[in-house]
Automatic annotation (TrEMBL):
It holds the Pfam family Glyco_hydro_2_N. Residues 13-184 form the Glycosyl hydrolases family 2 sugar binding domain. Its EC number is 3.2.1.31. Belongs to the glycosyl hydrolase 2 family. Residues 186-285 form the Glycoside hydrolase family 2 immunoglobulin-like beta-sandwich domain. It comes from the Bacteria. Keywords: Glycosidase, Hydrolase. The keyword tRNA processing does not apply. This is Beta-glucuronidase. It is an enzyme of class 3 (hydrolase). Residues 287-598 form the Glycoside hydrolase family 2 catalytic domain.
Length: 614
């Protein structure tokens, strides 16, 4: 799916701003036709943003059910000869959209874009009425899974509760930008590229998909592709809908040293008049798992960085360029070279910046909480892969969101791997056919390595699923959820645990999570749990083990920054495992990581500046 961009033939209007908003606890909206009559008692709400913490209303913070958004917009008169599209970056978790009273699209899944063709629904040169009904309920047939129940309030009113297994707040609303954009009537629908190189020559295999609206036009149309270097010089070109272009003296996209070419795709009619034009940045690089190595451009890569969240004060999961850039500058400052989009695909704009900054990304689908416990490292697990919980419908949805994520992100050089689940109950018998089907379907779509992220409670011999994947992520909390306050015992457990996985699987392993809750400003010497000193000691203890073992492919700390969760005894105003506070200021441990991740002696020769660690 192409990101909406302005080009020579396309225009774009950002509908971000203040919209009308109304919660609908009694479910009146549909029966009273709010989609055509308008919202009866709206308040003001920013878009994009989560709605939960904008007002002071406690009911809205924890609200479960339908809410409605509304605004008016103009479509310029001169757009009447084009195709007009309405695109939502994400609506969490489900959305139904009406324009001028007509339903135009429904979407399920809160972390990927969806769009609708509204060419024939809008009034040109006049005001148009846009209404969106957003629902934040979860079920076992969605990702992340969840369950809605009802309770009676003291005032006798029945309200909905959401039971969720994942550890982040159920922020809801229109989270990412809403765009109105045009394409010509016959248009470039999709572009797919694959890159490679041999010696100093780069190759870009491309495939351009043209809309099927006008078959007679198609037979005579011509596609041309031009590649420009970073200084704007044309370096290569190709002709036809499918082709391979050669780039002499190629400059590769490397972690920490991003080089982007601009690809310009042009569609001409039989008179050689340009009909459509689209542009994207591409990076030429290869990714491969070979034996026990993770190779970028043929050289071993060691992941240093974080599991993150899209999360901030007030806006919740609302898109914010300032916050995104702050995070990238902090990652650069601390010496991180990568992050995982735990636990859902992030806004595509984040990937654009990672492409430009040379930060490596593991993109994850929202498959989190596919197990029976909220704080996963504690307690016994019950089976969830069965008819009443994770079933064929869940799998269908899982495959669909994986496909949508790949369709959106496939051309980003920063994305080097797909993570298909975080901490699923993979020791269950039924988990194996589920993940086998998912992996088979995913491999048909893209050849990037596939990762699964495992729960520390599951022993390697009992995991029925890891064998299907190329890279295994391990989430490890010895010294926090077990071996509490005993880092010696924690190190021993960690070492034993990793050795066990290494021996059993013989596949590349990386630590996808390790961390401890830490209250900024709480200092204790000797270190005690929740103090900044304990977080530092915990990282030091883990790093000694990682370095002693030497075979890990990476270390991703949990978490980049403190983030909001649902309320819980072990969640003090959210999850405090951040190395940075929620306001993006460093805790003590940030300096420990910075020292480790920026120390020149720590960069292995073998990886040639990729940031490898022996
Ligand atoms: C995990 C989960 C993550 C939690 C984290 C924690 O294993 O993957 O979503 O936030 O543990 O802090 O408990």
């Amino acid at each position: 799916m192409l990101y909406p961009r302005e080009t020579r033939t396309r225009e774009c209007k950002d509908l971000s701003g203040i919209w009308h908003f109304q919660a609908d606890p009694d479910g009146h909206g549909r029966s009273f036709k709010w989609f055509s009559k308008g919202l009866p008692c709206p308040i003001l709400m920013p878009v994009p943003s989560s709605y939960n913490e904008i007002t002071t209303d406690p009911q809205l913070r924890d609200y479960i059910g339908d809410v409605w958004y509304e605004r008016y917009f103009y479509v310029p008169k001169d757009w009447s000869d084009r195709r007009v599209m309405l695109r939502f970056g994400s609506v969490t978790h489900s959305g139904t959209v009406w324009v001028n009273g007509e339903e135009i699209v429904r979407n399920k899944g809160g972390f990927l874009p969806f769009e609708a063709d509204i060419t024939n629904v809008v009034y040109y040169g006049q005001l148009n009425h846009l209404v969106v009904c957003v629902n934040n309920e979860l079920s076992w047939e969605m990702l992340p899974p969840g369950e809605v129940s009802f309770h009676q309030d003291a005032d006798g009113v029945s309200r909905k509760d959401l039971h969720q297994q994942h550890d982040f707040f159920n922020y809801s609303g229109i989270h990412r930008p809403v765009y109105l954009y045009t394409t010509p009537m016959t248009y470039i629908e999709d572009v797919t590229i694959k890159t490679s190189f041999e010696g100093h020559t780069g190759f870009v295999d491309y495939q351009v998909c043209i809309s099927q609206q006008n078959p007679s036009f198609l037979s005579d149309s011509i596609v041309k592709v031009f590649l420009y270097d970073a200084s704007g010089n044309k370096v290569a070109e190709g002709k036809g809908e499918i082709g391979k272009i050669k780039v002499q003296d190629v400059q590769l996209w490397n972690p920490g040293d991003a080089y982007l070419y601009r690809m310009s795709v042009c569609l001409y009619d039989e008179q050689h008049v340009e009909v459509d034009h689209y542009e994207l940045n591409i990076g030429i690089r290869t990714v491969k798992v070979e034996g026990n190595s993770f190779l970028i451009n043929g050289r071993p890569f060691y992941f240093r960085g974080f599991g993150k969240h899209e999360d901030m004060d007030i806006k919740g999961k609302g898109f914010d360029h300032a916050l995104i850039l702050r995070d990238f500058y902090l990652m650069e400052w601390i010496g991180a070279n990568s992050f995982r989009t735990s636990h859902y695909p992030y806004a595509e704009e984040v990937l654009d910046i990672a492409d430009r900054q040379g930060i490596v990304v593991i993109s994850e689908v929202p498959a989190v909480g596919m197990l029976s416990k909220a704080v996963p490292a504690m307690g016994e697990l019950e089976d969830v892969f069965h008819q009443e919980k994770i079933n064929d419908k869940t799998l269908e949805h899982h495959i669909r969101v994986t496909r949508d994520m790949i369709r959106r992100d496939k051309n980003h050089p920063c994305v080097v791997m797909w993570s298909l689940a975080n901490e699923a109950s993979t020791m269950e018998e039924n988990a194996e056919p589920y993940f086998r089907k998912l992996v088979d379907e995913t491999r048909k779509l893209d050849d990037r390595p596939l990762m699964i992220v495992n729960l520390m409670l599951i022993e390697p011999k009992k995991c029925r699923v890891s064998k299907l994947f190329d890279v295994i992520g391990l989430n490890t909390y010895f010294g926090w959820y077990s071996e509490m306050a005993n880092l010696k015992a924690a190190s021993a457990r960690l070492e034993q645990f990793l050795e066990d996985w290494h021996r059993t699987l013989g596949k590349p392993l990386m630590i996808t999570e390790y961390g401890v809750d830490t209250i900024q400003g709480l200092h204790r010497q000797p270190p005690v749990m929740y103090s900044e000193e304990y977080q530092v000691s915990f990282f030091q203890a883990y790093h000694q083990v990682f370095d002693r073992l030497g075979y890990l492919k990476g270390e991703h700390v949990w978490n980049f920054a403190d983030f909001m969760t649902k309320e819980d005894l072990v969640r003090i105003d959210g999850n405090r495992k951040g190395v940075f506070t929620r306001q993006r200021q460093p805790k003590m441990s940030a300096y420990t990581l910075k020292e480790r991740w920026t120390a020149p002696a720590e960069i292995s020769q073998e990886s040639d500046g990729h940031g490898g660690r022996r």
